Amino acid sequence: MSTTIDVPESSNIKGKTILLGAQARPGGWKKGIAIVDFILRLGAVAAALGAAASMGMSDQTLPFFTQFFQFEASYDSFTTFQFFVISMAIVAGYLVLSLPFSIVAIIRPHATGPRLFLIILDTVFLTLATSSAASAASIVYLAHNGNQDTNWLAICNQFGDFCAQTSGAVVSSFVAVVVLLVLIVMSALALGKH
Amino acid sequence: MSTTIDVPESSNIKGKTILLGAQARPGGWKKGIAIVDFILRLGAVAAALGAAASMGMSDQTLPFFTQFFQFEASYDSFTTFQFFVISMAIVAGYLVLSLPFSIVAIIRPHATGPRLFLIILDTVFLTLATSSAASAASIVYLAHNGNQDTNWLAICNQFGDFCAQTSGAVVSSFVAVVVLLVLIVMSALALGKH
């Protein structure tokens, strides 16, 4: 009788230790990723907002004017820059709204629901952010260098401040793109390893 | 004695049926996703290759010329279009190289390794494809509409064929972008549900 009682006791203890070990190890690892995710998300909000604000306030009027019109350049001049301001504002708004889901992932590191939700929407908004950043970058390049073959002249000689401000906005938007990329890779790693 | 033999027998059978049921259900679902992934990947290869080829072969020389030069437009005229051709070729090359990993995901639907590898690289190449597609789109828009404020004239009146071909390449590249987006969402769903 004594031997039959001993066997289930020891197997019970073994089962418990294995279960605790399995919960403690990857839980801490996933919690760390979730905290880094939250911090990076805050940085991406700042980068996207900075890009939208910097582009939206780019406006330069030259000090000389003719009888009929003044020389003025603002983001309104380019459809691409308007798209840039709108889409960067949307991306910043999404990133702010995604912060609660990131907090849920910190509190419950094993739940796949919030991570799945975040990775899918992050991918969609990464595409939006990348497209606006790249299209604005190509216009900024044209403004700096012009194009010989089509006779499009560079405007940055006249509108230096305007060019500097829009270039800064493009750089800031690419920071947001890179952060979103890192967020997706981290979420994928956290989803895949379990 | 007869009762002690009966108990392990029945528990053995139960264990087997549960195990078989667990393997058959999600395995079929994940295998289906992996097969769709493979087919979509083939479509994305075609779209990316078509975009690169169409843009790379866009070249139009006008039938009239002056004493000193001919009027010619090709993808070489724009740095953005050169970037487009190179990056679309890289994306197409990656997609071809990713096909074996997609086949591994079909054969072993439960392995997370290939899916994790694919979702991370897909995200990186989605960003590359989106940036080249968007920057080319903004140049194509300028070629069609021009810009009043900077005195950049539309060139599509003269170079109609060139504009049609580059516009087609941009549309084809956005098809590749959308397919890559769908691939990432599908991989994330397959990784998350288990």
Order of helices and strands of chain A: HEEHHH
The CATH C-level class name of chain A = Mainly Alpha
Largest sheet: spatial strand order of chain A: 1-2
Total of domains of chain A: 1
- How many individual helices of chain A? 4
Class of secondary structure makeup of chain A: mainly alpha
Shape of chain A: elongated
The largest chain-to-chain contact, stated as pair and per-chain residue counts, equals: A-B, 48 and 48 residues
Number of strands of chain A: 2
Name of the CATH architecture of chain A: Up-down Bundle
Describe what this molecule looks like in 3D.
Chain A contains four helices and two strands; from the N terminus they run αββααα. Mean pLDDT of chain A is 84; it is low at 1-24. Chain A is 78% helix and 6% strand. The first copy, chain A, is mainly alpha-helical. In chain A, strands 1-2 form a two-stranded antiparallel ribbon. In chain A, helix 1 (2-56) runs antiparallel to helix 2 and helix 3 runs antiparallel to helix 4. Chain A has a single domain (27-192), classed as Four Helix Bundle (Hemerythrin (Met), subunit A) (Up-down Bundle). The first copy, chain A, has helices at 2-56, 79-107, 112-145, 160-192; strands spanning 59-65, 70-74. At the A-B interface, helix 3 and helix 4 of A face helix 3 and helix 4 of B.
Task: Quickly list its features.
disordered N terminus, Four Helix Bundle (Hemerythrin (Met), subunit A), mainly alpha, 4 helices, two-stranded antiparallel ribbon, homodimer, 6% strand, 78% helix, 2 strands, 194 residues
